[in-house]
Amino acid sequence: GRARPRSLADLIGALATAEVGAESPRMRPLFASDEERAEFERRHGAEVVPKAEPAEARGRCWLGIDAGSTTIKAVVIDSRGRIVFTHYASNEGDPVAAAVEIVRRVRTGLPEGAVIGRSCATGYGEGLVKAALTMDEGEIETMAHYRAAESVAPGVTSVIDIGGQDMKYLRIRDHAVDSISVNEACSSGCGSFLQTFAQTMGTDVRAFARAAMASTNPVDLGTRCTVFMNSSVKQAQKEGADVRDISAGLSYSVVRNALYKVIKLKDPSDLGERVVVQGGTFLNDSVLRAFELLTGRQVVRPDIAGLMGAYGAALTARMHDSGEGASSLATVEALEGFSVETTRKTCRLCQNHCQMTISTFSNGERHVSGNRCERGASLERVPKKSELPNLYDWKYKRIFGYRRLTAGKAFRGDMGVPRVLGMYENYPFWFTMLTKLGFRVMISGRSNHALFEEGMESIPSENVCYPAKLVHGHIEALLKKGVTNIFYPCVAFEQGGGGADNCFNCPVVATYPEVIRNNMERLSDPGVRFISPFVNFSNREYLPAHLVGAFKEHGYDIPLEEMRAALDAAWEEDAAVKAEIRQKGRESLEWMRAHGVRGIVLAGRPYHLDPEINHGIPEVIVGLGMAVLTEDSVIDDRLERPLRVRDQWTYHSRLYEAAARVGDEPDLEMVQLNSFGCGVDAITADQVQEILEGRGDVHTVLKIDEVSNLGAARIRLRSLEAAVAERCAPAPRAAEAEAVREGAESEAVGREGAVPASSTALVSAAVDTALHEDPASAAAREERAGARAGHIEVRASFTKEMREAGYEILAPQMSPIHFRFLAPLLARAGLRVRLLERTSRRSTETGLKYVNNDSCYPAIVVIGQLVEEFVSGRADPDRTAVGITQTGGMCRATNYAALLRKALRDAGYPQVPVIALSVQGLEDNPGFQLGLKDIHKAVQAFVIGDAIQSMLLRVRPYEAVQGSAMELYRRWDRIVREWIADGRSHEFGGGRARRLTYAGLIRACVREFDALALRDIPRKPRVGLVGEILVKFHPDANNHAVDVIEAEGCEAELPGLMQFFHYSSATAEWDQANLGIGGRQRRIMPLVLWALERYEAPVRRAFAATGGKFEPHRRIGEMIPRSQDIARLGNQAGEGWYLTAEMVDMIEHGCPNIICAQPFACLPNHIVGKGMFRALRNRYPESNIVAVDYDPGASEVNQLNRIKLMLATAVQGRDGSGDDDGVLDLVGIDFEDAPGAGAGVGAGAGDSGGRRVVGLGMPGVPPRRAAALR
């Protein structure tokens, strides 16, 4: 019957006492006791700077104004070092008007006898305010903040400043700025971040901060941007979290963003002994407390934390004051009738077409913003171009400065070439070849934002890098011009050379033509030819015949000798261009040194030459009075090897070489350009930093995307310039700081017994750091010592002696069913292996701490899992090794071993050997040797694992007795583990050891799964889970996606693990024909594939006997032809073409619903995952595919919502007449600990009573706080 009505009061009471079924993780309260809070407030209450009323000012005074992005601050100090005037307020969108009012107040408020001796502006609006008020000087804000911190806390070692939308970290060594880090484009973790959430929760930021201090159970909200964080906050609210707990959780998130993404802190000792925090956000006590808790350090927060930029500007003015005369600062009279006229203008002096804003003030001063070089700001009719070398400008013109054939001479017609990605490296080669072949080469025009927007509709992946997004616009532009023949090859390998390990292109550069081919529908129009052969530049011999064949496929009959001659000319031109670049570099260095000019090596990928991509940064550098060099103009093969990373990408090999030279030559500095979404740079940036710091130099990275933010770039570059100047003259700075300090301290003592901030103790309350040094601190100290000696590291190797001594080997989890067989398998070979079956939030947090946060999610998960074992004390670093796989391809997964070694070293365990396992044998592991019998048994074990996985997923949604499928799985897990150990099983023999053959075991296993009692119901919607290998197989990594699928009444399907190995062996013939890779690989790989398929024969026979209940995985040879018109075999990064083939196979065999699980910003998945969806949907209209990105900070709610929509479509579209009414009801999922180590949790996905979920063969599923999406 109908439910009885309930009163509103009754409902409110029920809600208040209801148990929350899904709960977000919680963190330590900011204060565990009243005593902790009292000590905190007492300590920070003592950090004061001397002050006086304006009327008490004496003698010469100095004004500093900090014109920030959202606020404006001002400080005046007098001759006694006291602050006599302060201002902190919003600039209300008009910093000039706010600054005018400040100066008017200062001028009228100072008493007679007090004079402004000098003034200084800093901050984002420095130039504007300086011009408007005729201030004496401007100072880059990073240096202003450093000087303020040094004054407050003499001997400061780190300065962390968090403002409204920006964040800065200054590392100080020997009284000089050693390195500077700032947030790039995202303001998550800054003051505006907290203000946004305060407003959404109906309060102001001050009340929001006070609420956090009273929190007893802060919500762990992760470390992502505002968009993702918003989902986490909403989920926490659904679960009953109040404002206090959410505010405290956000305070933790602010600090974690700063620590992991900007400071990249590995150990608190890296901050040094004296840490100063400042900026308006640190006025929030909850953020300050979170910082101290997360770093384990007591820090100094001056009582003027929000004014430190202005204070530093005032100190700068005092430093540079001659002591005579008065400041040029505008007088009160000059401010009467002050006005400003603003106009906008497009500069036409070059093809950048800068959009300039020109402010003309009533005092006659003029300020120009938006210009990339000084020519735009000039008043001359035709401003002269700077004489400073700018090799970005020169190289751009050299690369594309070719005259094409006339129409009459182009006997083969027009051939379009897009000005994109690898063409910035190889255009001279391709232009020469095509011209010699009789084509008129039609290069697309220069990039601009309008061209980007022209191609936006066909971009399949929103988080691919901007250079890749531009490709769509360039192709569209060629087609609009009527160019119907387009040549855009997939260059997998560049030319080899030097001491590099390989010569790959990155996956996006190498294979983006595949995305274009499948997503730009106009390329399928009649008469349009898109020629995109796969090419290997490291093998010249095969190229003529290969390209003849590629052009013939599109109707061009080119004789082999003609192609060979054209390629000879192309190679010659390519070499000439590279020689010219090096010669131009030598000439530029000579000019620099003759004129006493510093140079910046602006190091990036070739496509960073594109002004639309680099946003005019080269011109900004020239405007700062420094020359611009490219990385390939200065390389000279001086770099010492081997490197920590596997040096496998050609463009990045040049970065490493250039870094070595920059570090050796004092008049050069390096700035590395990094496009947002470039996963490869997560590997390379750390290695470049190690090379530079190993030579005592500074590493600066500029992240760039489609949004031009020259203001931030200019600050970084000026900061670098100032840091270099500070390093060159540390002694005067120290002496000056001492003099300032003595004056300030004497004044402080004279004022009511106040204690200067610098006298506050900085010793941790928990650990006396003067007496104790933990392993991580010791490792950090050793690393600094090693950096002075260089970047070369001695790898800890797993030796035969370690094996004989019984070292434990830690193996990370990947596929629960298969990897449970590892321990008995390797024990046969005399290896003591412990599988780390579960990950946790804590291990992921450890991964975030010790792995570059731009690295892919699997690296953070796996490395965090391994390092956490040592950090927690569960593993002995002196008797333990760790194992990790290497793929060996162009994917960054090949460098997981390098990331792991760095993480172990940073965590304080450099002695732990890393066993890097790869089919190619990329590294030698003397103590880890497997015989043929061991490998034979390993293949058998993985084949059995695939069979069990398939059968378990097939029967579990239909089991007649809840939990019976998992009980059967656990039985066979025990049987297989026993059988692997010695070929017998007590479990199978009912207590007696019974010997089993491989085929016999498989037959018996399949019979028992076939005999399992099932409900007689229609088959449920089938949902496939594909994607990156770890994310699709590891339940913790994909937030238990299989459990979600089954809990909602669907049947999950997973590919086999062995199929990945088949994929790796299946392309030898194609590789020889299309990449010129033959030899041993061409002979061996087909035999390997044949042998692997023989191992699966018993499974195929046993499955055939079940009458279709269980289906074997399709042979890789059957999958290839059905998917090659979508993703060709040249897609070999990560899962490569096999990922697309998996989706085709599932759709064609009754599983059109697919979750493509991928790490956030995974490079190969931009191509073979999201990049293929349009083609799949065009061919298979019934396909229902959703991409789900996984990342440590990604919102689980967002992930589940995406899966929910896909499952809803699956349920609505199924053809069945079961009891289900077709309505999808996603419920909260209750994950409970199973009793006992071998216990599992049953699943009754279709049962009305009990939505308990399974762990896909894992020994026990831990508590999990999933979302209740009802």
Automatic annotation (TrEMBL):
Residues 415-634 form the DUF2229 domain. Residues 63-317 form the ATPase BadF/BadG/BcrA/BcrD type domain. It holds the Pfam family DUF2229. Gene3D superfamilies: 3.30.420.40. Coiled coil: none annotated. Residues 1240-1270 are annotated as: Disordered. Transmembrane segments: none annotated. PANTHER family: ACTIVATOR OF 2-HYDROXYACYL-COA DEHYDRATASE, BIFUNCTIONAL PROTEIN [INCLUDES 2-HYDROXYACYL-COA DEHYDRATASE (N-TER) AND ITS ACTIVATOR DOMAIN (C_TERM)-RELATED. This is Putative 2-hydroxyglutaryl-CoA dehydratase, D-component. It comes from Schaalia georgiae F0490. The lineage of its organism: Bacteria, Bacillati, Actinomycetota, Actinomycetes, Actinomycetales.
